[in-house]
Write the structure tokens for this entry.
Amino acid sequence: MKKLKIKIAPSLLSADFRYLAHEIKRTEAAGADMLHVDVMDGNFVNNITLGPFIVRAIRKAATIPIVAHLMIKNPEKHVEEFAKAGSDMIIFHIEAIKNPKNLIYRIKRLNKKVGVSIKPKTKVSSIKSLLPLVDEVLVMTVEPGFGGQKFMRGPAFKIPKIRKHYSGDVGVDGGINYENARLCVSLGANVFIAGTYLFGSADMKKSIRELKSM
């Protein structure tokens, strides 16, 4: 398989929301490929974060693509709102929906890219039939819900299983730093969502450059 370009998506959950427009410009200047927006509803995960109105505000400040990661129950009820707000890709969780193919086609009809995410304990077999239909598979290496968690090695070893059937983008989200990103690259991942590691870096541009150089 042809080696895919490594892409970096800073997670805005770790940004300083007092200066959100500045933080967005900082990520762009540092070489980020896209912005990752964690959407949590307090039901699918034990946290409440950002809604479509925040995506709309981000869209006004950003020039790079916005990825809405819907960690919510019944995502099919909300995809139109996130599409209209300016999301370029919408990622849903396989654990949150009964008819994922219908949702994939619905998102595509909105002219948006679509991704599917799996939690640490979810098996790759649960998404195998969806792989020909999606633009990205997102592997969670923490239990979704909160930023700043420690990377779990076990879920990363789902990546080669995905790669047996899929040649598109494979992302990793949760506790990402240079060391564990290097492991994930060796396993076949090419998209990295990083929050604390990037926004807490003294030199975000250098950190992104190092991640992309693997």
